[in-house]
Amino acid sequence: YSLRGNISRLQIVTPELILSPENVDMRVEANPDTINAYAQSGDLLLTFTSSDGVMKLMEKGTELYRQIMHQLEQREIDDKKLREYFPQIAFHIESGRDNPLSDFLASQSLSYNKVYADLYVSPAGGINGNTHIFSLNYDSTLIDTIRFNLSHDTIGLAFDAQVRNNKQNPQFVFNALAEELGKYPISFAIF
Which of 93, 90, 129 is CA-nearest to residue 114? Predict the structure, then answer.
């Protein structure tokens, strides 16, 4: 199955303003063993791929949800067991300031210069991804850089994150770092 489309004359209406972003082009191809989806509007690009197909992806998603709920009820999360139920997916987003998402967020007093994110999930590879947000501005607070990287291996989940304002930031300068090297498997009790 495939779907190709274009949405034009789109308007986003809020109590304060009416936004008329660029057209949205989209393409979705769903086969028994693969899914490919693409959407683009202005400088917003979204892609999604899966080598699982629609039915298998839905089955895996349902079973993963059941396993997560069961583990939460047991008050113990075991990522190695959860990985068995992970679907095979890849997701990508990149966005600047000229698109419907940016327009809508700006109507909520939230803006950014650039956003990049990639996420890869599979039973063999676990969860891996990275995100970068540049010049995030909420109301009157400006954050120059937000960065987050996630990697999963047979030992566990590792991540590093950074929130930073450089010396040109007119409000305040700082550099906050967080890191977990994945030395320990993700298996913990929830109290």
Answer: 93
Residues with Cβ within 8 Å of 3's Cβ and at least 6 positions away in sequence, in order, are 26, 27, 28, 29
Comparing CA positions, the residue from 189, 117, 185 lying closest to residue 156 is: 185
- pTM score: 0.81
Longest Cα–Cα distance in the chain? 53
Task: State the amino acid at position 20 in one-letter form.
Answer: S
Q: Determine the Cα angle at 28 with ends 60 and 44, to 5°.
A: 105
Q: Measured between alpha carbons, how far is residue 144 from residues 132, 166, 170 in Å?
A: 10, 7, 11
Instruction: Give the pLDDT confidence of 24-43 residue by residue, as tens digits.
Output: 999 999 998 999 999 999 99
What SS3 state is found at 129?
Answer: strand
